[in-house]
Amino acid sequence: MLPPLDGLDRQTGAEEPGARDTVVDAPADARIWQNGSFQPDTWATAVDGEPLPETPVILSRKRWLVERDSLAGRNRLLGLRLEPGEPLDDIAGELAQFSVIALNFPKFSDGRAFSTATLLREKHAFKGELRAVGNVLSDQIPLMRRVGFDTFEVTHGPTRRALLEGRLADVRLHYQPAVVTEPPAGTRPWLRSTSG
Amino acid sequence: MYRYDEFDAEFVRQRVAQFRDQVGRRVKGELTEDEFRPLRLMNGLYLQLHAYMLRIAVPYGTLSSLQMRKLAHIARTYDRGYGHFTTRQNLQFNWPALSDIPDILAELAEVEMHAIQTSGNCIRNVTADHFAGATAEEVADPRPYAEIIRQWSSLHPEFSFLPRKFKVAVIASEHDRAAMQLHDIGLHLKRLADGRLGFAVYVGGGMGRTPFIAKKIRDELPEEHLLSYLEAILRVYNMQGRRDNKYKARIKILIHEAGIEAIAAEVEEEWQRIREGALKLPEDEIKRIADYFAPPQFVAPPAGASARSPIGAPDAAFERWIARNTHAHKQRGYAIVTISLKPIGGVPGDASAAQMDAVADLAERYSFDEVRVTHEQNLVLPHVRLADLRAVYGGLMEIGLAEANVGLVTDIIACPGLDYCALANARSIPIAQRISERLAARQDQIGDLKIKISGCINACGHHHVGHIGILGVEKRGEEHYQLLLGGSGAEDAALATITGPGFGPAGIVDAVEKVVDTYLKLRKDPKEAFLSAYGRLGSAPFKEALYAAAA
Amino acid sequence: MSKSTTSISVLTANRLSDGAVVFLDFDGVWVESLRGAVVARSPDEARALESRGAFDAARNIVVEHYLVEMHEAEDGSLTPVRFRERVRLGGPSILGDVPGYVEAAPVVRQAHHDVGKGRPQTHEERLEGSHAEAA
């Protein structure tokens, strides 16, 4: 009863889904985009119910609240992972202990972490690595950079390819100052530009 | 009006190139529809019932003749020969092909236009009083501030993925012609206590499923703090606005649930942190932008000149048109002309390519090359010499846009409705047409009466603030209409209330006529307009006329 | 054939390239007319049709696919059950009143049309397609 599935040439724009995922890519375990290349993640993420590993570890906010006293004074690399909507102000004094803060984008349309990043940089003067994790897509990365993200965990195939091929089609002129320092673009007070 | 410099032009060019790339990746399958949707929405491209729809930004409703001609050209070349002017002062094309969109955007960029952020969960077109720069009522032209906000909000990295759309309106007079109190942020430009210019700031207005009138969050905001204060509001909203339910995601819900005092305190705290930072408006920047909106070189009329003195015998139709469709201008010898896009029985807010070209000619010749779009889906020629009114009227007659009905019962606002819109439950345009035809003969007798029709609860037709509001719903698979009375989007903002059970497509037209007949019967005198009469009489006599006879 | 008002469904979507309303026909081609549209007469068939729609959406031919419930008359003609779907099928009801409305796109842009699609359908043809030829 169903129409035949042959005849891709009958239709237009018809590629098999997923056909391009393995054409150009870095190794699958090199997920962190930083300084122009994909690197393996040097951080482990603490798992609920399991003891903390000895390696550099990223803790959820909940886990941090549980562990922070026992970790005080211990000389080890720590990271924090925040879900959108989790408060910052009550741990503001402890943020300097983290080498990296990872902000999650559970859906790419959830833009709360853009404000969290802004506050981390501007209000809390966080100087460590700010990492975007979760649903990170190529069209957001330039915006994320502007609000202070340094590194990006990317698993979306087309985004990985675009990064590797240097093909982020972004707008390099900006109408507003952002978190990061950008060179002015002319004499109007807030015009900024991003170089290549 | 604002003119692009190299930066503005290059920004739009890069944006066009970016979207061209995004469209290409979509067609190739590198982006799924779920991933592409927010990107195309941020470029004003919807998928509607029958086709794509492209919404073009008309910043604070202001257009030059060059721009209007380009819109006509796009209508002819890429679409089906017409466009629709919207309740947010924008223009919509209903039939563009996806693959043509980058070319359309490139053509728009040539005349300093774009479709950036006319859709999506971001800051939308900033609207303003359509009489700005022409009315004596304003303390200053609000449009420079609208332009400043427009620039600051363009591709703002922090606010591109808000919980929901965000709409801003700016007015500068006590008469609110922009429905300012029905916006997420409303700004009322005024003189502060110390005599300097500043704003009363309102938040949390909006229509849709749960309409709210905005609440004042700050009575006096000096003009130099405009952007930092807005940034504080947006930051609080971005972080706390609900993201679990599309119908509860606007800032009006956040205000309602948290309370205006709590939100005001949070905004104030964040604003105090940033107010002296990079976003403080330098005085010379305000002046630089304001200079773009400097008044044109008006010519004071010779003594004794008036619209009547030129050619010919007294013309009753021309007199009616002057009475209804022109307003006083701040400059002696000039008038503000409203072009009604509501011909009797016509499609509200639509204009053909030929009509757009003709309006462009009139604007260029008679209105210092400027035309405006109003949120009531009409056009305005802001600066017309009284001596030229007859020529303008003649030109409008030739293109069928001389109906003298501005503000009358046939000057209906209607969303595209189910004829076009994938969100709609019922058609709104045919209802507007039938009402217009039914009441046209009595429209002068009826006087000022604003009917607003929405085809679904999203309220793009602003039915909550109609003197008579109509909401299309779906009942048992068929079109059905609720009737609301007593709303207003002006400075006396009020939400209309539902009368009772709804009506079918024919019944709603009869119902509106019954409401009108009741008003005519019970008004004190012809000077008591519908809204005043309704305020005095209450809903009871209207409900009785609508429902009691059914027994 | 079937009872005079059997409820059945067809698969509809919007074509990615121009957003046009299309239906899946028996050859697996998305066409603008209901004439020849594949019909699902059971939940199993409906599910199979729906997943075919998902497949073609993943192949970037169409977007927003879904099943439309239809009444089938004795002569085999199909009418959408929901009012909304009748409007979607027939096009805007007010095109005759739209100022300056021009039905077909100018010739210069025929190059953009997809293979197998041909000239865009007129409003009348689309409505016609919802009724089979009278016996």
CA-based gyration radius of chain A = 20 Å
The count of β-strands of chain C is 6
Structural class of chain A: alpha/beta
Order of strands across the widest beta sheet of chain A?
2-1-8-7-6-5-4-3
What percent of residues of chain A are in strands?
15-25%
Oligomer type: heterotrimer
The CATH architecture assignment of chain A turns out to be: Alpha-Beta Barrel
The share of residues in extended strands of chain C comes to: 15-25%
What level of helicity do the residues of chain A show? 10-25%
What is the molecular shape of chain C? globular
CA-CA gap between termini of chain C: 14 Å
- CATH class (first level) name of chain A: Alpha Beta
Provide the domain count of chain C: 1
Describe this entry's structure for a reader.
The complex is a heterotrimer of chains A (196), B (551) and C (135). Chain A is α/β, with parallel strands linked by helices. Chain A has one domain: Aldolase class I (TIM Barrel, Alpha-Beta Barrel). Chain A has four helices and ten strands, in the order E-E-E-E-H-E-E-H-E-H-E-H-E-E. Chain A has an eight-stranded mixed beta sheet with strand order 2-1-8-7-6-5-4-3. A two-stranded antiparallel ribbon of chain A has the order 9-10. In chain A, helix 1 links the parallel strand 4 and strand 5. The radius of gyration of chain A is 20 Å and the shape is globular. Chain A starts with 31 loop residues before the first strand and ends with a strand. Chain B has 551 residues and is an alpha+beta fold. Among the domains of chain B are: 85 residues, no CATH class; 157 residues, Sulfite Reductase Hemoprotein, domain 1 (2-Layer Sandwich); 138 residues, Sulfite Reductase Hemoprotein, domain 1 (2-Layer Sandwich), CATH 3.30.413. Chain B has 17 helices and 20 strands. In chain B, the strands form four sheets. A five-stranded antiparallel beta sheet of chain B has the order 1-2-5-4-13. Chain B has a five-stranded antiparallel beta sheet with strand order 3-14-15-12-11. Chain B has a five-stranded mixed beta sheet with strand order 6-7-8-9-10. The longest helix of chain B is centred in the first third of the chain and has 23 residues. The relative contact order of chain B is 0.09. The mean pLDDT of chain B is 95. Chain C has one domain. Chain C has 135 residues and is of the alpha+beta class. The N terminus and C terminus of chain C are likely disordered. In chain C, strands 1, 2, 3, 4, 5 and 6 form a six-stranded antiparallel beta sheet that branches. In chain C, a hairpin with a 5-residue loop joins strand 5 and strand 6. The longest helix of chain C has 16 residues. Chain C is globular and about 45 Å long. The chains are: A alpha/beta (196), B alpha+beta (551), C alpha+beta (135). Chains in contact: A-B, A-C, B-C.
